[in-house]
Fold:
Amino acid sequence: MPERSAAVLEVRNLHYLWKTPEGATRTLFDGLSFQLPPGEKAVLLGANGCGKSTLLKLLNGLLPASQGSIRWRTEAITPEALQTRELARRFRRDCVLLFQHPEAMLFNPSVSDEIAYGPRLLGLDKVPARVARWAAALGLEALLTLPPFQLSGGEKQKVALASLLVLEPGLLLLDEPTASLDPRTSGWLVDTLLDSPQTALITTHNLSLAAELGSRALVLGEGGRLLFDGPLPQALADLELLERAGLAHRHRHRHGGPAHCHLHSHLHGHDWDPAA
Ligand SMILES: Nc1ncnc2c1ncn2[C@@H]1O[C@H](COP(=O)(O)OP(=O)(O)OP(=O)(O)O)[C@@H](O)[C@H]1O
Ligand SMILES: [Mg+2]
Structure:
């Protein structure tokens, strides 16, 4: 009998609390629960400060949940659990986090060393061939001997991506992966993701690109409250939801005709009509 496929990631009743310098307690994710089945590509949407990056860091075991649980395949993931070398090794190979600001990830003397760092640390074989393959995939061959800090913003983002994809992980947590990528590289990433069996949770403010990145949307509102979990096209067509989540707003503008009000996406401007 075929086995029921377990979720790659399961979040249950998640709360994250922190204290302000004045001693007040703030809460994000008022009991957030969701699952990612194998191979699903989900897009995490929400306005600035709603908790997207914090959620990805919790899921990657970098921050401790104040309440609730995070399970990766069959294992409970917490920063303490990841002190166990054996679990950390398996988890760090399978579940990778692309930081919103790739500079935070780049610390090796050369691009080549940067991409090789994870495979070397994890003792993978054929490291030079793996580096060559992912450098070529992202068009980084000419940059391999340069120090990462000398690169452009988009080049740094490509190096950060290559240094994660080289591990051939099963679960990708990507925080604004296309923020500084040119259209061709963004397109490459979309194609690569959609063609792969990997499970992915991806944040973006670019609603036009979001439509291509996955099939499911998780929309967070203020305080990381889950406003929507369902089919991505349904979320993108729901102007009331997008407005409530701070992802679209009514604004006045004057191009040609009289000033008027309409909705437009946060970054994409007027060439995208969410109702289309
Ligand atoms: N430990 C903490 N101490 C203070 N503030 C925190 C802490 N953790 C999270 N926050 C606050 O929680 C909010 C969520 O931040 P987060 O970076 O997750 O937002 P985001 O959804 O990724 O936003 P953006 O779209 O701007 O990237 C922010 O207001 C942040 O300052
Ligand atoms: Mg963020």
